[in-house]
Amino acid sequence: MRRLKLVSSAFFVLLMLGVFSSLSYADDSAQATAPLLNEDCSKCHDGPPADIAVAGMKHKDVSCQDCHTGHKPKVEKSIPECNQCHVGTKHFETKDCLSCHRNPHKPLNIVFPGNITEPCLACHDQQNIQLTENKSKHSKVSCTRCHGTSHRTKPECIKCHKPHSSDMVASDCNKCHKAHMPKVITYDDVPAKLCAGCHKTAFDVLSASTAKHQTFNCSTCHKTEHKMIPKCKTCHGDMHPASIMVKFPKCSDCHKTAHDINNWTAPVSKQPVKKTR
After folding, report:
1. Could you give the number of structural domains in the chain?
2. Which pLDDT value is given to residue 29?
3. Residue 38 lies in a domain
4. Measured by CB atoms within 10 angstroms of the end CB, which terminus of the chain is less buried, N or C?
5. Looking at the domain assignment, is residue 147 inside a domain?
């Protein structure tokens, strides 16, 4: 009887050990298959989560496991390719994303490696159209030549280009010139001194004149289109009697320059002189 009890006790102990082992294994198995959370990754990798929190942009909306689908030694390559998510535009076909986006956890903290253009224009298509359809010296220089190696840096034109006047500031350039199509000149009511940088002779004559034109800005007559030559009649109408206008239909027949209309010379009449007896 005593021997039977010992066997029964031993069997019970073994049974309980088997139950506990099974429970322990099930618990370990559950832990092994449970999905990891970002908090789990940050226990070892504290840098990337901090970067994403500060400047992650749309990367804030994805988990670590959405990009890093495995971990060494289970997987050989734990660093993902950008194009596994970023597809559908010309820019995403650019090779070596990390040459500009050096920290994918701060995707818009961009530092350019040197003189580059093509990757920039893959995103900035409007600037690409302007540079391509309006050829100028700007069309031949790299984007980083003007914008430097930091993204969203706007250069000051006067660092390369001589200003039109001594008191001209960088913001004045954009009143007439668009950086990516500088030869297409448009303007509002800009000061005449800005026009003088290219049109010095006309400006000097106008400044020395005693006529009312001297008080106007160039844009008063030349409006908003560069090289637009206005017609005097638009403002002045027919200033002289019809008999004079018939003989001299063009204002410039007498007024040689609109920049100093008080300085005029009457031309020799082409009408035949009547002979007197």
Report:
1. 1
2. 47
3. no
4. C
5. no
